[in-house]
Design a protein that fits this description.
alpha+beta, about 80 residues
Length: about 80
């Protein structure tokens, strides 16, 4: 049953989401949660719409790649400009 209606449901959901702008701002911040350091990775478009958020204990290249991969898979078209710190 999930295979029969899953693709249709997914495409309808993606159509109803607001379309991301063509300029993305990527940022990272250090947080302390329960006394332990965590990294907050966030992507926002030029209109201020939060595209994705990732919180984890590690700060490494793999985490950044995972966030970008997830962002690009969700959006219909990639941005023209990505601004980082």
């Amino acid at each position: 049953m999930g295979q029969k209606f899953g693709q249709q449901f997914t495409s309808q959901t993606r159509r109803s989401l607001p379309r991301a702008g063509d300029k993305w701002h990527l940022d990272e911040v250090v947080l302390k949660i329960a006394g332990m350091k965590h990294w907050l990775w966030r992507a926002v478009d030029q209109a201020g719409v939060v595209l994705d958020v990732l919180v984890q204990r590690r700060r490494d290249k793999r985490a950044a790649k995972r966030l970008l991969r997830k962002l690009l898979e969700r959006q219909i078209q990639p941005p023209h400009v990505m601004i980082t710190d």
